[in-house]
Amino acid sequence: MGRMSGKVVVVTGAAQGIGRTYAESLAAEGAKVVVTDIQDTDEAVAAIKAAGGEAIGLQTDVTSDESLAAMVEEAESTFGPIEVLINNASIFATLTLKPFTKITNDEWDAVMRVNVRGPFQATKAVLPSMKKNGRGKIINISSGTALRGAPMFPHYVSSKGAIIAQTRAMSRELADDNIHVNTIIVGLTESKGVKEHEQLGAIKAPTLAMRAIKREMLPEDLVGTMLFLATEDSDFITGQSVNVDGGALNQ
Q1: Least C-beta-crowded within 10 Å: which of 94, 121, 168, 173?
Q2: What is the number of other CB atoms lying within 10 angstroms of the CB of residue 133?
Q3: Residue 85: which of 176, 2, 22, 172 has the closest Cα?
Q4: Does residue 3 lie within any of the structural domains?
Q5: Do 71 and 44 meet the contact criterion of CB atoms below 8 Å apart?
Q6: CATH number at residue 45
Q7: Greatest pairwise CA separation for the chain in angstroms
Q8: DSSP per-residue letters across 2-21
């Protein structure tokens, strides 16, 4: 019996990268995982099933109420009420680093729509399902860039700062429903998107130099914190932001 045995978990942006690592780790702990993404989720779902886990994959747009409602309906009909939501979907690895004066209003709005409004809409969509359960865990994903003010992509940095604020506000509203809302603040992680990004290679060395733990950060380094926030171990914790970056922000 795993720590997540029988729990229904939705992970957004889980077709690849860190989101897929979350989904596979949850399934390994016994969760029934709803793998959602705007991309094809077949490979991620197949990997979970091959390892003996339970999962379904759904093409879901976190900025569409209709798409999210269909996702919740399918999740409930297949597995039952949703207990955990991991708001992982965001725009990051496809962004080009450039001075803020070169960022168009449309690009700014696109990032905010997915990175800030997406978690807002997804949380609203799963809320009735969590209330059926009598409990819930919402785990948002922020970034260390919001704490140190990284240059050249302020739309992304601002969106991840907003997630911290959104977490605090929603945690106040949802506590009476036994729903906990927390954030993982993620350091620069060697995900597929980061590895393939031509510009991000230049910031790896200075990031590593800042860390107390002198190695690259891997998607697997986030799993322990994610599972802690998803289980009963964190039942008296809400509205918090947990920084996972190897000690880079200790300075």
Answers
A1: 94
A2: 18
A3: 22
A4: no
A5: no
A6: 3.40.50.720
A7: 53
A8: -TTTT-EEEESS-SSHHHHH
Look up tokens 């605090």; give the residue. 168
Question: What confidence tens digit (pLDDT) does each residue in 195-248 have?
Answer: 565 566 556 666 677 878 888 878 999 999 999 999 999 999 999 999 999 888
Give kind and range of the element (H or E) at residue 126. Answer: helix 118-133
CB of 34 within 8 A of CB of 13? no
Q: Is 133 helix (H, G, I), strand (E, B) or coil?
A: helix
Antiparallel, parallel or unpaired: β 241-244 and 32-37: unpaired
Would you please indicate which residues are annotated as catalytic (active-site) residues?
156
* Residue 80: domain span: 8-242
What is the 8-class DSSP label of residue 52?
T
DSSP string, 193-247: HHHH-TTGGGGHHHHHHH-SS-S-B-GGGGHHHHHHHHSGGGTT--S-EEEESTT
Give the strands of the sheet with 241-244, arranged side by side.
54-59, 32-37, 8-11, 84-87, 136-143, 179-186, 241-244
**Bridge partner residues of 241 (DSSP):** 183
Note whether residue 1 is domain-resident.
Answer: no
Q: Which two tokens stand for residue 177?
A: 């429903």
| pLDDT per residue as tens digits for the range 134-191 | 999 999 999 999 998 888 889 999 999 999 999 999 999 999 999 999 999 998 877 6
